[in-house]
TrEMBL record, chain A:
Source species taxonomy: Bacteria, Bacillati, Bacillota, Clostridia, Eubacteriales
Protein's recorded name: ABC-2 type transport system ATP-binding protein
Keywords: ATP-binding, Nucleotide-binding, Transport
Pfam family, one: ABC_tran
Any one Gene Ontology molecular-function term assigned to this protein's record: ATP binding
Coiled coil: none
Gene3D superfamilies linked to this entry: P-loop containing nucleotide triphosphate hydrolases
From TrEMBL, chain B:
Higher taxonomy: Bacteria, Bacillati, Bacillota, Clostridia, Eubacteriales
InterPro entries: ABC_tran_2
Protein name in UniProt: ABC-2 type transport system permease protein
This protein's UniProt keywords: Membrane, Transmembrane, Transmembrane helix
Keyword Transmembrane: yes
Organism, scientific name: Fusibacter tunisiensis
Domain of life (superkingdom): Bacteria
TM stretches of this protein: 33-53, 65-92, 113-136, 142-171, 183-203, 240-262, 306-332, 352-375, 396-423, 429-450, 471-493, 499-516
Keyword Transmembrane helix: yes
Amino acid sequence: MLELKGLTKVFGKEKVAVNHLDLSIEQGEIFGFIGPNGAGKTTTLRMITGIIAPSEGDVTIGGKSIRTDAIEAKQQFTFVPDQSQIYDAIKGIDYLNFIADMYEVSSAERKDRIERYTKLFQIDDALFQTVNSYSHGMRQKLMICGALLPNPKLFILDEPHVGLDPHSNKILKDLMREHCANGGTVLFSSHVLEVVENLCDRVAIIHKGKLIACDTLDNVKRHSSATLEEIFLEMTKDE
Amino acid sequence: MNKLIALTRIQLKDFFSKYTQQMNIKNKWLGKLMILLPIVILLPLIQMIKVIYDSFLMIGKPELVITYIYVGGTLMGFFMAIPLIVSIFFYAKDLSLIATLPVKKDTIVFAKLATVYVYLMGMSALIFGPAVYFYAFGEGLMVMRLIMGLLAMLMLPVFPMIFATLLIMPFMGFVGGKSKRNLMIIIGNVLFIVVIIGFQMVVSRAAMEPSNLMSILAQEDGLMHMLGQSFPPSIWLTKMVRGSLINTLWFLLMNLVFVLLLKFSSNRLYSNALIKYNQQSTQTVKNGKANYSQRSKKTLLIKRHLGIIIHNPTFLLNTVMTMFIPVLLFVIYTATGIMDLETLQNPMLEPYALYIFIGIIVSPSIMGSLSATAITREGGAFWETRALPITARDNISARILTTIILNIVATGALAALTFWILPLNPLDIILALLVSLVAIVLLATLDLFINISRPFIHWTNPTAAVKNNMNIMISLASRILLGGAFYLVYLLIGDLSPQLIVGIYGGIMAGLYVISRQIMYGKFTQKFLEMEF
């Protein structure tokens, strides 16, 4: 579903944020992307989603390159960034309709899905308020609803659990599982190792721009009885 | 096409919803005042255009009012488009969202420019609308003139907007990777404007040479060609409103060519400018020497406010352009020879020299309105000063002092450039500087009343914060009212010497300042503390 080949990002002349990343995510997987602050997780996700261009390498989504077939590649995923960068002088419903227009969601489908997701995340009563009156968590929920609305093949989220209340976190985890059960794929970055441990089929650990582990949880933990947290801390420890 | 419409609609909705929210119509009286504000500013403008129309009508060329206003409107549109383009393309919050959407790059560029177009259209309608009205109705209703005039009005923003986009976006892409990119943006934008104004001035000046003027008046369309020679499409436009089909085609074709040019360069503009600029934001910065010395809270607050202006190119450009445009114009006018320094030293001007000098050096405070956005500029970071252990009084006074510092710099620059040109004695100069200082302090305080009443912190882009902001309109309207009051005072005491009149003005302003200071650090400090955001 998603393939990264030699993905590299260099800022300026010397700051290597992401260093020759090779990664492949299969359809139906829930894939966790973890690493310390500044490891290159967000930069990688921004390259995958076409927000910034890679210095080297390429990203293909469903066989389409984000560089050369950008529209076809983008049609297959939706993205929830770590910060709610969103039009905020419009109503919540206007935002959701805008996303539905962008991904060509039919009127009947958008009605059903908007009603379902906004009810689940308990923001259905706020849809006719302007976004700038929303709390941080409500904006996050609105963006998640928007990203689920087109029923994307690949659902990408950057730190989705930050700012969500426990109820919404549970809903999001259930929806991620449901999405994969229906043939979709989920890629998300997180600092909450417990969530990654309970939810993901495979994890990738990135440190200083390099991929230091990428496997199923069982394989990552195969030689020890340690928790993912202990393994993560050991792997990302600076000498 | 549907995606273009959806993207354009959301941009316009967000942009104009911000405007509606800025209107603050929850407050009944302020809401009513808002409606009257554009009229206060528009009335003198309509009067001026009427005078221009009457002048051209007298020589039997009423259509030249269209040429004249079109050239001015194009220049104005260009100036207004630059900060708006920089702001909505490079500093808007929606870039990360839009970049991930399955839409073509040219769709993004056109949808974003739709906001610029509507804004420029609204602004240019303020000056072009009355010109079209006088031209179409001045000698009884002429339907053809009205239709062509309206068509010209609709087309007016196209050229300056696209021209500015084609200039600014590659430039932003170029400076994006540089370490001093903010400074380069300001210098580059100012240079663009200096070149455009300079070119305009040189061409106009050449046309105004006595020998040229004679031949201009002798020719059938000489005057039209003179007005339009710095911008030939205005000649096609003038002939178009006269009813020439071929010139209508030329004019429409010119606009179409620019639209197509933009369409074909959109992909490059998007990839080489927008994406490149945004991805260069993480710079490798070498560690400097840390300064651990303790500093006063007030100094740090002023540094913070200066930093907010200096580190945001849109804020800096807006400050430079509004406060230093008189300095720029002065330099361009003298460098291109438009302003004859000997004329200013003419003894006939001597009784008015003091007024002219004060008018020039106070202009940055009049145009700047910096305090009217002193809170707004902080945007989402405003909460910081509310959470820090500082008094509301220090918080307020730091904002006023920041405005005063910037205005004193601009006033000082203008005073240094102009004091030796006008026939002034040292006492006149000292008096003018003192009165200007009082005016700076008074206006900096008065403007903050506006911002405390209308904080407007949640803005989409920096231009919305500092330019497309009703606070600025209120501030400018307050200048007009203050100017009107001073004119009334002048009518009462006009027989006195200029020095005495200026002294009385200074006294009035000092009195007003004492009163406004009392209110600011009393009732408005409480209001500042209770401000919701």
